[in-house]
Design goal:
Elements (H helix, E strand, L loop, with lengths): L1 E5 L12 E5 L9 E10 L3 H6 L20 E8 L9 E4 L7 E5 L3 E3 L16 H13 L7 E5 L4 H12 L4 E6 L2 H10 L4 E4 L5 H9 L3 E6 L3 H10 L5 E4 L17 H7 L2 E4 L9 H13 L7 E5 L4 H9 L6 E5 L1
Parallel strand pairs: 8-9, 8-11, 9-10, 11-12, 12-13, 14-15
Antiparallel strand pairs: 1-2, 3-4, 3-6, 3-15, 4-5, 5-7
Bound molecules: NADPH dihydro-nicotinamide-adenine-dinucleotide phosphate.
Length: about 325
């Protein structure tokens, strides 16, 4: 089979030239497990840090011969467990950039055949969607009366967060995204009330207008600078979910702090989110969000690399924030 690996150890933001696609042995089907032919593999912002051994999930650099990590969706082609059958559609957290993955049955989640496109189980109905659902419903508890702000709003986490808050009855959803194309996607396809392009002149004034002085829930994906702007705009007793720091992952330095007095003055509640804490609520998330997907109320654009050979360029675009929607490899 083919798989994608690092050419050499890296200590900075990964670039397309840092990867190569090589031939490898197809793994054997393990006793008590399955062999899966992968159809889609996810590309996520945390992987850049993980490759350098700077991620909580893998605090040491990745061996060069290991495939680049990524969640995956595919079909069982061989089984040595009674829990899964040949032909089952499954989701694996440790799939990686490769054509086949072997896994113990306990680490594989079977996907019911409901007609939902399999790639959606890497975006709105996968780990990014669970992250958004956890932040909006379990932490911020967004609902009627709330005005919600989300940055990186064109991505899978941000786009899902806004649409889930809308489905839970929030009054107004405002996004922040980089560039007019992303903002058009957020407003026209994701149905946010407004999306502000932070790369345009005067964006903070437009943000203030869009929030109408009523911001009560903020979902942070990008930076402490945007968090500070959101807290400044927030009503007293607002809630902020701290989910990601996309603008800081590749800098090698910790994100700067935020004004402490601002948090006190606003009586704001800041909640850190790590999606691993919510893996045991995956069924509750799916039962709510699969219905939204089926009803057309939760949709995320896909930024697909067509085949493994296209993955390095697509991954570099993700690292530079140039992806438009859920970044994934179609195999
Ligand atoms: P996205 O598809 O949204 O990609 C990240 C986006 O961040 C970019 O497209 C870009 O959007 C924005 N960005 C801003 N500045 C930069 C920069 N300097 N470099 C790169 N990107 C930048 O990703 P996801 O939807 O997968 O994830 C969104 C956030 O959620 C990430 O921070 C991710 O790490 C986090 N996350 C956290 C989890 C947790 O457990 N806490 C779990 C899963 C994801 P724009 O141009 O609009 O600014």
């Amino acid at each position: 089979m083919k798989q994608g690996v690092l050419k050499h150890a890296i200590d900075k933001k990964p670039e397309a030239g840092d990867f190569k696609i090589v031939e490898a042995e197809t793994p054997a089907c393990p006793d008590g497990g399955v062999l899966v032919r992968l159809e889609f593999v996810s590309m996520d912002p945390y992987v850049g840090a993980r490759l350098r051994g700077r991620h909580m999930g893998e605090p040491a650099p990745r061996p060069l011969e290991d495939p680049i990590p990524g969640h995956g969706v595919g079909r069982v082609v061989q089984t040595r467990t009674t829990e899964l059958n040949e032909g089952d559609l499954v989701y694996l957290t440790e799939a990686g950039w490769r054509e086949y993955a072997a896994a113990p049955a306990g680490s594989v989640r079977r996907i019911a055949e409901t007609g939902i496109e399999p790639s959606i189980f890497l975006g709105a109905l996968g780990m990014p969607g669970l992250t958004a659902w956890a932040g909006m419903t379990q932490l911020a508890e967004a609902g009627p009366g709330d005005v919600v702000l989300v940055d990186a709003a064109a991505g899978a986490v941000g786009g899902s967060a806004g649409q889930i808050a809308r489905a839970r009855g929030a009054d107004r959803i405002v996004g922040i995204a980089g560039g007019p194309e992303k903002c058009a996607l957020v407003e026209q396809t994701y149905g946010f009330d407004a999306c502000i392009d932070y790369k345009a002149e005067g964006w903070q004034d437009r943000l203030a207008e869009a929030l109408e002085g009523e911001l009560s829930v903020h979902f942070e994906n990008v930076s402490s600078d945007i968090l500070t702007i959101a807290l400044t705009a927030m009503k007293p007793y607002g809630r902020a979910v701290l989910c990601g720091l996309a603008a800081h992952y590749q800098t090698g330095k910790p994100a700067p702090g935020i004004p402490f007095g601002l948090v006190i003055g606003k009586r704001a509640k800041l909640m850190g989110l790590v999606v691993y804490d919510f893996y045991d609520r995956w069924d509750a998330f799916l039962s709510e969000c699969a219905l939204l997907v089926r009803n057309g109320r939760l949709t995320i654009a896909e930024d697909r690399a067509d085949g493994l050979h296209a993955a390095p360029e697509a991954f570099a675009r993700l690292m530079n924030g140039q992806n438009r929607g859920k970044a994934l490899i179609a195999l």
